[in-house]
Write a structure and sequence with these properties.
single chain, 306 residues, four-stranded parallel beta sheet
């Protein structure tokens, strides 16, 4: 049995297998062919952090695969009243076929997976957001940006940045990370990525100058500067991230056919300009839709590797 907690846990071949499955299932879905790969199975969806795309994509995804999703907020289950994570895991995993968790600490997710009898998927933690990166790579393929791409990440050294590090290190492409001083990625995660890059041939660089990172790249991506739970830091963060907004001036430094990715929600005027967002809206909302398809590929792959 395999869990989907971070891309670090998979080989390049396994990641591409999931992507291929996602492409196949997406093609079937577009033809209104809903193959019941997970007929009569139940996905438990535990949300300690609220979400639009994660809930809709997983709940719709398991339904289209022939199963059913159970939305479980922390207010709906005993976890919200202090039940130990390991006990919640041992109960829920005896009643469902797969679990998706969107929570805070990576350690809580790992504890749940350790005690679970069924596959567990990371819907987001403070450390990683791997389902989003599978989505982003599927989108890169669809827009012709998967052949030796150069990707520039501009913004906060957060769970999205960490996940980009894992994807680049596993697949072997070039990633340039530009973050303000004091907002760099976690040192241990950087070390892991650089070690894996030795095997894959990935080129990973770090800078405090976003314009240098973006020069000549194929893909530009960013994330909100003020993530959930950081609202009290907003004013300070807006000062620190001055100059990091992806706008048309910054995009002009990338290749003329470069695409812009954003995991959403996007805050115009902060990490991205209104003009740039709307110019790349087709890519961004294709990316959002691909949460549905990429996650179906992940679920089916995990089900096949029990």
């Amino acid at each position: 049995m395999r869990h989907f907690l971070t891309l670090k846990d998979f080989t390049k071949e396994e990641i591409l297998e999931m992507i291929t499955l996602a492409q196949k299932i997406k093609s079937q879905t577009k033809q209104r062919k809903f193959v019941p790969y997970m007929e009569h199975q139940t996905l438990g969806m535990i949300f300690e952090k609220s979400s639009t795309r994660t809930r809709v994509s997983f709940e719709t995804g398991i339904y289209q695969l022939g199963g059913v999703g159970l939305f479980l907020s922390s207010n709906d289950i005993q976890l919200g009243r202090g039940e130990p994570m390991k006990d919640t895991s041992r109960v829920i995993s005896r009643m469902v076929d797969m679990v998706m968790i969107r929570t805070f600490e990576q350690s809580k997710l790992e504890e749940f997976a350790h005690y679970s009898k069924v596959p567990v998927i990371n819907g987001l933690t403070d450390s990683y957001h791997p389902v989003q990166l599978m989505t982003d790579y599927l989108t890169m393929i669809e827009f012709g940006k998967d052949k030796n791409p150069v990707v520039a990440y501009v913004g906060d050294g957060n769970n999205m940045t960490h996940s980009w590090l894992m994807l680049a290190a596993k697949l072997g492409f070039e990633l340039r990370v530009a973050t303000p001083k004091g907002y760099e990625c976690d040192a241990d995660i950087i070390a892991d990525a650089l070690e894996m890059a030795k095997e894959s041939g990935a080129k990973i660089t770090f800078d405090n100058d976003p314009k240098e990172a973006v020069k000549g790249c194929d893909v530009v991506t960013t994330d909100t500067w003020v993530s959930m739970g950081q609202e009290d830091e907003k004013e300070e963060r807006l000062k620190v991230f001055d100059g990091y907004m992806v706008d048309e001036t910054m995009m002009s430094l990338a290749k003329s056919d470069a695409i812009f990715l954003h995991c959403l929600p996007a805050y115009r005027g902060y990490e991205v300009s209104e003009e740039t967002f709307e110019k790349h809206a087709d890519v961004i909302f294709s990316e959002a839709e691909n949460r549905l398809h990429a996650q179906k590929g992940i679920m089916v792959w995990l089900d096949q590797h029990r």
